[in-house]
Design brief:
This protein is 77% helix and 0% strand. It has 409 residues and is mainly alpha-helical. The mean pLDDT is 89.
């Protein structure tokens, strides 16, 4: 990923960061509050630094400019905090000077992103590959759970603007994390057969540096959207979820332990919590219930898929449960987690967060899920694993629709 010219996504992030700093310096207001504008600029500057560091490590000038702009901005924030405590003239002057210097450095860094290096070749229809990088099918389910958390927290239909901002920002975070997953998994994707070997990065259609820039840009803009138009808590949660998926699950757990998807499932459990935080601005007990539902749903769902493609994981050396413990033990583990899942889905009812519509849905959907899991233990075949995997997707979607509709109906 070295020696290449910065691409459009890094350039866009660099220009946006310079603009964000300019808005902070010139007006002190962007979107709803000065705090949100500062955090948005900070997120974009961090995105530029990470793209320069990991996408273009040989371009020392670009990296130094990005780091300097970020460092100056952090110092400016600190001086701004001091200014809030004292009205000393020298503090005010230092704050203004730092703002001007940060802006100049950010502008220069943006200019540096438009020069140097070797241009990477583009394929015929790159937009299709970039859409693929975001894993839209997975994202759609994550957005549905996020919407369920939003409606449940709002206890009514939320305003259209809040819904669009929440789902838009959450979608950017999910897409950015998925793109970075493509970058980190490109080596094993080549070994796992037709299911993954034709992915954009693994096949070489999108260069790793470009995919990395794209993923970091989406994550940075996710924070901008959520911090500016929703709230800071939702923005932080979305970024934490994305970082956990990339750094903890993809980079570490996936290749090191058969419990990878158990712990890594925490990343997929964040979207409904983001929705709840967007509606309420807090993290109370119902948010924990939403998290736990998706957290315990993830292992049986993913292990059913792992049973279907066990040989692919084995060929790539990924220690998924069916590879390490065998198919029978995996099927039994699916039953155990499904029992816990069904019990946890009743917690919102016991806490009086939802009522009869959700209760009936949870019991019926859970009974079917458990029945399919038990059938898989009795006869562990690809057909039964496929039925369970397909149903698990429908199960989570319908469960969160019931969660959202119950307070309204």
């Amino acid at each position: 990923m070295s020696g290449t010219r910065p691409g459009s996504w890094l350039r866009l992030t660099a220009v946006a960061s310079a603009f964000a700093v300019a808005v902070v310096v010139a007006t002190g207001e962007w979107a709803r509050s000065h705090e949100a504008s500062v955090l948005a600029a900070l997120a974009l500057l961090v995105g530029v630094v990470l793209s320069a560091r990991f996408g273009h490590p040989d371009d020392r000038t670009l990296l130094r400019g990005a780091v300097l702009a970020l460092g100056l901005f952090v110092v400016q924030i600190a001086v701004g905090g001091l200014l809030a405590l004292t009205d000393a003239g020298w503090v005010s002057g230092l704050h203004v000077a730092l703002g001007a210097l940060t802006l100049a450095t950010a502008v220069v860094t943006a200019a540096l992103a438009f020069r140097g290096g070797v241009e990477l070749p583009a394929n015929g229809l790159p937009w299709r590959d970039y859409v693929t990088l975001t894993k839209p099918r997975i994202m759609s389910l994550l957005l549905l759970t996020g919407w369920g958390g939003l409606v449940l927290g709002y206890e009514s239909w939320p305003p259209l603007g809040l819904t669009l901002a929440t789902l838009g920002g959450l979608g950017l975070a999910c897409g950015g994390a998925s793109a970075l997953n493509h970058v980190l998994d490109r080596d094993i994707d080549k070994l796992m057969g037709s299911r993954t070997e034709k992915r954009p990065v693994a096949s070489g259609r999108v260069a790793p540096a470009r995919a990395l820039e794209f993923g970091l840009a989406l994550l940075a803009f996710s924070f901008v959207v959520l911090a500016s138009f929703v709230n800071v808590l939702a923005a932080v949660l979305a970024i934490v979820g994305g970082a956990f998926y990339v750094l903890v699950y993809t980079r570490w757990l996936k290749r090191s332990t058969p419990q990878n998807i158990v712990i890594g499932g925490a990343a997929g459990a964040i979207p409904p919590v983001v929705g709840w935080a967007a509606a309420t601005g807090n993290l109370t007990l119902p948010a924990l219930f939403l998290f736990l539902i998706v957290f315990f749903w993830t292992p049986p769902h993913f292990w059913a898929l792992a049973l279907l493609i066990r040989r692919n994981y084995e060929a790539a050396g990924v220690p998924m449960l069916p590879v390490v413990r065998g198919e029978r033990e995996t099927a039994r583990s699916i039953v155990r987690y499904t029992v816990v899942l069904v019990a946890i889905t009743l917690l919102p009812v016991l806490a009086h967060t939802v009522g009869l519509l959700y209760l009936g849905s949870a019991l019926v959907l859970g009974a079917i899920f458990l029945g399919l899991a038990i059938a898989l233990v009795r006869t562990t075949t690809p057909a039964r694993a496929r039925h369970l995997f397909s149903y698990s997707l429908l199960y989570l979607a319908l469960l969160f629709v019931a969660l959202a509709l119950d307070p309204i109906v």
